[in-house]
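SAMPLE LOG
Freezer: B-3
Tube label: C17
Construct: single chain, 86 aa
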Amino acid sequence: MKKEITILNETGIHARPAAIISKTAGEFSSEIFIEFKDKVVNAKSIMNILSAGLQKGDKAMLTITGEDEAEAMMALEELFNSSFGE
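STRUCTURE (predicted):
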């Protein structure tokens, strides 16, 4: 399952949003990756997420595969759309 996401929060994906993403992704058994430019990073790893360098306005692909992929996609999409409460 794939979905394009746009980074909406002003400060991009820094430590706090990366921690929220990895914590949420870790709640699911599915494999969850964020693809941006030529990088594919594991969304369950804070360091991997930070290494993607996602800034406001960037578009990335969220790729989720596994038995709970629909639930994981809904939860992560909601996070990105909420700008992580910032």
